[in-house]
Design a protein that fits this description.
The chain is α/β, with parallel strands linked by helices and about 260 residues long. The chain has helices at about 15-25, 45-55, 80-85, 95-100, 105-120, 145-150, 155-160, 180-195, 200-205, 220-225, 240-255, and strands spanning about 5-10, 35-40, 60-65, 90-95, 120-125, 130-135, 140-145, 165, 205-210, 230-235. Strands 1-2-3-4-5-8-9-10 form an 8-stranded parallel β-barrel, surrounded by 4 helices. The chain has a two-stranded antiparallel sheet with strand order 6-7. The chain starts with a strand and ends with a helix.
Length: about 260
């Protein structure tokens, strides 16, 4: 059984005090971390203070990005070594906004994924719906070319530690209703692709999140789908009560198992 994972992506919102206050208010209201994980991806300058505020509550504090290099003359970059020292255990990589606005490529994200895995930080690899058809033994297979390029060279042991977030470009930041059926189909095809490149046993263990216009009204229907193991939530996670409601609605899927 894959443990559900609910992640807030605050993007470039909230200062240090706002971030810490949010953590202090939410940490005692979280579900059992053995049954469901909850995390917050915040701006780099707030992460150490958030880790301290979270304590042993089980709340995951997540970096939104990191450099492939651990140190050196890379002004403005975020070091994985520094994140690890600060107690950060997850990092988002390849978010669609990083690709659109800052020109990140499959090659650059690939390097970051390798560096994170080597540093002991779990990458949450974001991918959109880019996929190609391949015919194998007269059968059509859908392959997520973007994702598999990023995962190239990731070993069998390493892939087990990876979390994937499926973010269709038409849904990210659009504010429209997410379609659970389409979300499930994308996540199912990702799992199928991983199974064909690695094994069905490994694919069955990897958590795949859905990101794109997730809100309190649709999160349960989305996470109820068999291949969706959680959600990466943007603007809807900025309000404390709203985020808690989404966590609560996501927990309903556990009660019905």
């Amino acid at each position: 059984m894959r443990k559900p994972f609910i992640v807030a992506n605050w993007k470039m919102h909230k200062n240090v005090q706002e971030s810490v206050d949010f953590v202090k208010q939410i940490k005692s209201k979280l579900p059992d971390p053995n049954k469901m994980e909850v995390g917050i991806a915040a701006q780099a300058f707030a992460l150490p203070s958030m880790v301290e505020a979270a304590g042993n509550s089980g709340l995951r504090i997540i970096a939104q990005n990191a450099a492939a290099e651990y140190s050196g003359p890379y002004t403005g970059e975020v070091s994985l070594r520094g994140l690890a020292d600060a107690g950060v255990s997850y990092v988002m990589l390849g978010h669609i906004e990083r690709r659109r606005l800052f020109g990140e490529t499959n090659a650059s994200v690939h390097k970051k994924v390798q560096a994170a895995l080597q540093r002991g930080i779990t990458p949450i690899i974001c991918t959109d719906e880019t996929m190609v058809q391949q015919v194998v033994n007269n059968e059509i297979h859908y392959v997520f070319h973007q994702l598999m390029t990023v995962l190239h060279g990731v070993s069998l042991d390493q892939i087990k530690r990876v979390v994937i977030s499926y973010e269709p470009s038409w849904a990210v930041g659009a504010g429209q209703h997410a379609n659970p059926t389409l979300a499930e189909e994308g996540c199912r095809l990702i799992r199928q692709t991983i199974a064909e490149y690695y094994s069905y046993e490994i694919a069955d263990k990897i958590r795949i999140l859905y990101g794109g216009s997730v809100n309190p009204n649709n999160i349960k229907d989305i996470i109820d789908k068999p291949d969706i193991d959680g959600a990466l939530i943007g603007r809807a996670s900025l309000d404390l009560d709203n985020f808690l409601k989404m966590i609560s609605n996501a927990q309903l899927t556990l009660k019905e198992e």
